[in-house]
Amino acid sequence: MTTPVASCVSDSVVTLDSVRESLVRQEDTIVFSLIERAKFPTNAPIYDHSLNSFPGFSGSFVESVVRETEAVQAKAGRYENPEENPFFPDNLPPSLVPHRNYTQFLHPAGASININKKVWDMYFTQLLPLFVAPGDDGNYAATASSDLGCLQALSRRIHYGKFVAEVKYRDAPHDYEPAIRSKDRDALMNLLTFKSVEDIVKMRVEKKAMTFGQEVNVNANGTSTTNGNYKVDPPIVGRLYEEWVMPLTKLVQVEYLLRRLD
Ligand SMILES: O=C(O)C(=O)C[C@]1(C(=O)O)C=C[C@@H](O)C=C1
């Protein structure tokens, strides 16, 4: 059996370019997951804590779906993968599938960083209202499941900051060590920030939202036309990255580096 690796990360070939390639591929997943969620209107009852229909749960319907799904996926071994971080890590059942030895690439002290509480709050309170239409079509289970798809894609991308930080540290340990030892968060943030890369990321995700989310029509002679409508407004995807995804990915990097010498 082969030794599994976190996607695109095999210890022998990890470079800043290869982790960036993974971030680029994850953009597709994020944009598609937003497009899927935008099929449904808000469906507000699934977020209302007083309306939960799951016996034995006190949270909202969507929280119940996420907890239950994470429990099943934990049994299937999802959280053995160092790229995956659960939203509700307490009391998750153990994996029932044969243990797979993931390549240990991350430094152990930083590997368990989990900022999913921030990801959850950002998604439900700030992002969701920006791209779903108001209304209620009763498709509660499908809506909750597409919320989970968005949350998992965003969480994976943001926590991928651990891999980015590890590569940056290995490339230039002497640059990072003084700031790590003095716990200088601002200095670490400056060291790991590449503004020109961030500008390109923002432009690319907007372009992907245009490309993947356009309405495509084909007439009888095979000519395709688009009507200029997008399933998710491209500037909202740019804003998602600029205001939340990249800052949270950088927060993960800082938190990880602060533990890098433990
Ligand atoms: O590509 C990097 O160097 C990253 O750290 C990733 C990332 C991002 O989240 O996209 C974050 C910080 C950098 O300023 C540029 C981009």
Structural class: mainly alpha
Separate helix tally: 10
Can you list the ligands bound to this structure? Answer: prephenic acid
What is the name of the CATH class?
Answer: Mainly Alpha
Tally the beta strands.
2
Subcellular location: Cytoplasm
InterPro entries: Chorismate_II_sf, Chorismate_mutase_AroQ_euk, CM_AroQ_sf_eucaryotic, CM_II_prokaryot
Organism: Turnera subulata
Domain Chorismate mutase: 142-253
Structure description:
It is an enzyme of class 5 (isomerase). One of its GO terms (cellular component) is cytoplasm. Helix content is 56%, strand content 5%. A hairpin with a 5-residue loop joins strand 1 and strand 2. The chain has a single domain, classed as Chorismate mutase, AroQ class superfamily, eukaryotic (Chorismate Mutase, subunit A), CATH 1.10.590. Helix 7 packs antiparallel against helix 8. The protein is built from ten helices and two strands, in the order αααααααααββα. It has a two-stranded antiparallel sheet. Bound molecules: prephenic acid (PRE). The site of prephenic acid has 12 residues, from helix 1, helix 9 and helix 10.
Essential attributes:
isomerase; 262 residues; binds prephenic acid; mainly alpha; Chorismate Mutase, subunit A; disordered N terminus; globular; protein homodimerization activity
Task: List the SSEs and their pairings.
Blueprint: H1 16-37, H2 61-75, H3 108-111, H4 116-131, H5 140-159, H6 161-171, H7 173-181, H8 185-192, H9 195-212, E1 214-218, E2 224-230, H10 234-258
Antiparallel strand pairs: 1-2
Prephenic acid (PRE) binds next to helix 1, helix 9 and helix 10.
